[in-house]
Amino acid sequence: MSTVVGEMDHHDHHHHAPSGITRWLFTTNHKDIGSLYLWFSFIMFLVGGSMAMVIRAELFQPGLQLVEPHFFNQMTTVHGLIMVFGAVMPAFTGLANWMVPLMIGAPDMALPRMNNWSFWILPFAFAILLASLFMEGGGPAFGWTFYAPLSTTYSGDSTALFVFSVHIMGISSIMGAINVIVTIMNMRAPGMTYMKMPLFVWTWFITAFLLIAVMPVLAGAVTMVLTDKYFGTSFFDAAGGGDPVMFQHIFWFFGHPEVYIMILPSFGIVSAIIPAFSRKPLFGYASMVYATAAIAGLSFLVWAHHMFTTGMPVFAELFFMYCTMLISVPTGVKVFNWVATMWRGSISFETPMLFALAFVILFTIGGFSGLMLAITPVDFQYHDTYFVVAHFHYVLVSGAIFSIMAAAYYWLPKWTGHMYDENLGRWHFWCSLISVNVLFFPMHFVGLAGMPRRIPDYALQFADINQIVSIGGFAFGLSQLIFLWLVIKCVRGGEKAPAKPWEGAEGLEWTVDSPAPYHTFETPPQVK
Amino acid sequence: MAEKHEKYYVPASSPWPIVGAVGLGLIAFGAGHTVIENSKGIDGWGSNVLTAGLLVIAFMLFGWFRDQINESMSGMYSKQLSASYRQGMSWFIFSEIMFFAAFFGALFYARVIAVEWLGGAGNNAMTNEVLWPEFSAHWPLTETPGGTASGEMGWFGLPLYNTIILIISSFTCHFAHVGLEKGKRTQLKVWLGITIILGCIFLYLQGVEYVHAYQDLGLTLDSGIYGNTFYMLTGFHGMHVTLGTIMLIIMFLRVMKGHFTHDNHFAFQATSWYWHFVDVVWVCLFIFVYIL
After folding, report:
1. Closest residue by Cα to residue B45 from B30, B28, B65
2. Total count of domains within chain A
């Protein structure tokens, strides 16, 4: 029996893309929306990166030379907000949009119109946030974590704009996450059981759950900041019976799952790339799934490790310390599995693999410094120093961003139909790899020596290392222009890519042509 | 197996999402400026932008749902698509639960930890001694450490009536749903109508309660953490009841036009889930905000 419902509206079901600007404004196509997300995130990456350049330029020498301290604070704040909400998260959502339907054999995302809505909110949200920098009194300057009372009693006028722009970013993320989770639950091709899904799909499934669970808590936190600042409430004011520390609890209840939101999809990407270039199936698939779920579960029990120095009861400090250290077990499982996948593999080192390998090593370094920070008594020394900055940039830049780069190289042939320039790719990789370590590794040392973060000036003894760090920063920033050039080149032309450009790659996405046709899997494939 | 697969309806391009994005952008920008202008006591254009945004969103909702209903009525939707909608709605309600969880969390933290510590509990004797030695912990916090005094909202009377009304409305909503599934249109219309009336009564009584709290009890939004959590929780709940009532009214109008069948009534089901959800939130509110 072959019943095909909805055939009558297929007269307008074009198999090639419509043209003009309305294609992008009105689109319901997961590939178009994926591309929009990816380009948006890259633009935000450059915008947030320029702010980092301002920070590094100011810190090139001790003393105040380039910018006012207040402007410096705005730069650290908006750099963080843009990189977290504007660069990393949209990049992952873009990858999910492009790849999840292709990987599970679905014709599109489950809710295609909402998909477009969730993308188009983002440019408005970030336009509002960036515009607030030009207001009288400047933009948000309280750090991306907007701790009360910095964001309530002591913040500028622009705080209301910050709050509402975070609100609509949150709406966008929640709708995006609902779309991904429903797509995965409901749109898998026949035979694509949960335990056959590629790990990228699994990790995004769990990420989407985390997003839906914690983005509303962020909305609650910004709402309380808004009412505390403008409507006389005292959630975070002890005089009214509230507590500024309560802000940190609410924020980090969102914030810690949020950092896993920014790393779990990376795990999925690396788990696709390492087997492909080792020409071996992934070692320990099931344990990877369980480890991801365990990390996600634990992420709700560790938030207070960000606030060991706030004066919590000793029992709470111990509880959060042990829970945090526990996370290294499933994470260790993952790293072990990646290495075991490569063991005796027939490895080749194309650019995606290079980035994936760098991810494994550098993310592990970031994980180890995280383990150091997890130990309460030592955290008292490291707290709010450059050691923390080094830690989370290792996991977010050489972790999350490197994995996004790896994903881009891995799937660019599928997206554009052309092979990228392998030489340029290697240039991009080696420049990035060297500069990222020159940029972030020495930060560990100044941090351990006591240099505080988020301060535009520093003691003279930190000058040499800060100069090295700044040089690494400028080099890393410039290296990303190679990537921009490479992508433009690849979109415009190049060697024709076959349907499956990587001989070891597996998955449904390689069964469709390169570039992937505008509509794929309108009739679901049968997965065995 | 493979052949039994229905085609999934992937809609052609639609202008509504971008209209919605423009609307949300205007709302965020306008609301931000309105708040800033109010705090400085100046007259500005913020509220105009906000109003424009709300109008754009209303226009978008109207247009989007019109397209949606037309597509649904002409039978373009498959079972699989209905499942997507149902799952999407469930996850949306889950996100709403987490939004309320943030405010319940604030309530519990303030009550169990913050206020107690300010009163000197645990090893915080010096906190009390140094900051506000006069202050002793109590809940409801009718006198803040800073000295703001307010009345206390009891649970008996209006809040209890409202609880009963909302619980009954959850049942009437369910009866309406059963009527729909059994094809008994009169039962559906009557129970749905009663649900709407109960929702409106709830909102009216909530308004009466707020007036009473402000005028007689001196319990205001800015009277310390007790008033903060009281108004933020009941206020956001009230906004959700308002939205739920509007959804119910739209369902009522659609029922009167003969929409919905036994197999095809996702919109009704989603509305009914939403209504049960606001009911459960209220029960939690009644227990933790009013009684305890």
Report:
1. B30
2. 1
